[in-house]
């Protein structure tokens, strides 16, 4: 199962991960990841259009459809952090807000402090606002060196990586999947994708509520309000034709909508 975390199939990232895994920069102590760019497209609701049709056409504007852009887009940077560090974060504490969007209920920006344990903290930020400076990158500092996500390794020890395919990663991930099936060892990235998605959801919850959110509250603590969290309308609501769209331009308020 391959679901689109294509940096895991991109040669420049594979080389860096190979070196990090073998101790090239020591233990990762911290870093920063970001996906900052302009606003995405949006659709206004048409006269007489059902809420279900409107939400589907305007899916990038509703957290109930896309997870908010921290989940839909920034998840790729979060996946790199989890991949390089070797596990998801223990906690997330963040903030965000809505400033320019016209439709839906999503935030325009997020900023998170992700605690991976053992003194490792990653600053995560993402933004979709026109007229602002952008960038999509990752940076990690280790106890013995530093690196950007896709290159620029500065390490005390040089580790020669094997040759990885230099193809378009969006194509290579399909090649890798098909080759793995042909070899009788099907590639299954379900857990990696699920953990990176849940990392983004953990950050979104923290920004929406203003609360520190723990990983265990999402996956283990059944008494947590975030355990088995389901946004509405649900997939079942769509099947039953019972979709009521959230009001446009009304976003969560931290400290109130906990």
Kindly report the average pLDDT value.
96
The main sheet orders its strands as 7-6-5-1-4-3-2-8
**Helix content range of the residues, please?**
25-40%
CATH architecture: 2-Layer Sandwich
Order of helices and strands: HEHHHHEEEEEEHHEHH
Number of helices: 9
Q: Supply the helix-strand structural class.
A: alpha+beta
Seen as an oligomer or otherwise, the chain set is single chain
Number of strands: 8
Amount of beta strand: 15-25%
Walkthrough of the structure:
32% of the residues lie in helices and 21% in strands. With 258 residues, it is an alpha+beta fold. The chain has one domain: 2-Layer Sandwich (Dihydrodipicolinate Reductase, domain 2), CATH 3.30.360. The protein has an 8-stranded mixed sheet with strand order 7-6-5-1-4-3-2-8. 34% of the residues are buried. The model has no long low-confidence stretch (mean pLDDT 96).
Keywords for this entry:
21% strand, 9 helices, alpha+beta, 258 residues, Dihydrodipicolinate Reductase, domain 2, eight-stranded mixed beta sheet
């Amino acid at each position: 199962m391959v679901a689109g975390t294509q940096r895991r199939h991109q040669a420049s990232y594979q080389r860096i991960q190979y070196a990090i895994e073998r101790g090239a920069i020591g233990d990762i102590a911290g870093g920063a990841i970001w996906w900052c760019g302009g606003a995405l497209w949006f659709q206004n609701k048409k006269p007489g259009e059902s809420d279900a049709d409107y939400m589907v056409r305007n899916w990038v504007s509703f957290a109930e459809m896309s997870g908010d852009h921290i989940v839909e887009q920034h998840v790729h940077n979060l996946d790199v952090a989890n991949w390089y560090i070797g596990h998801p974060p223990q906690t997330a504490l963040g903030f965000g807000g809505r400033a320019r969007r016209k439709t839906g209920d999503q935030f325009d920006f997020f900023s998170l402090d992700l605690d991976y344990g053992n003194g490792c903290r990653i600053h995560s930020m993402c933004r979709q606002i026109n007229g602002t400076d952008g960038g999509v990158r990752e940076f990690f500092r280790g106890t013995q060196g530093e690196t950007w996500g896709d290159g620029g390794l500065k390490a005390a020890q040089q580790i020669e990586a094997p040759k990885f395919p230099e193809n378009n990663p969006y194509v290579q991930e399909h090649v890798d999947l098909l080759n793995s099936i042909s070899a009788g060892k099907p590639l299954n990235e379900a857990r990696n994708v699920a953990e990176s998605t849940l990392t983004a959801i953990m950050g979104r919850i923290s920004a929406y509520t203003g609360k520190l959110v723990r990983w265990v509250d999402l996956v283990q603590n059944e008494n947590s309000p975030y355990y088995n969290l389901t946004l509405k309308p649900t997939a079942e609501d769509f099947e039953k034709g019972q979709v009521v769209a959230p009001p446009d331009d009304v976003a969560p308020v931290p400290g109130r909508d906990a």
